[in-house]
Amino acid sequence: MAGYLGYRAIPLPLAFSLGYLLPLGLLAASWLRPRTRRERGTRVALGIVSCVAAYLYSQVALYVLYTVAILVWLNSLDWAWR
Q1: How far apart are CA 29 and CA 43, in angstroms?
Q2: In order along the chain (82 residues), what is the average pLDDT of each group of 10 residues?
Q3: What is the pTM of this model?
Q4: How far apart are CA 61 and CA 52, in angstroms?
Q5: Residue 31 burial (CB < 10 Å; 0-12/13-18/19+)?
Q6: How far apart (Å, rounded) are the C-alpha atoms in residues 82 and 76?
């Protein structure tokens, strides 16, 4: 509950949270597959792909946020040549 309230206190753009829907869907698909030996490889592969997708998305989102923050900071400086 505290995590939910913490996220609700910091309003993030909806686009940042939508990027986690694909990994969440893949993870749900890995849990909903039949529990047979034949399906075990598929379940493990879906779980791994979902974790990698969530990690890569978080790294890309972090890079974008850092880039925007640096550009805003550079724009806010009082440049001598203006």
Answers
A1: 8
A2: 53 71 87 88 92 92 90 77 56
A3: 0.70
A4: 14
A5: exposed
A6: 12
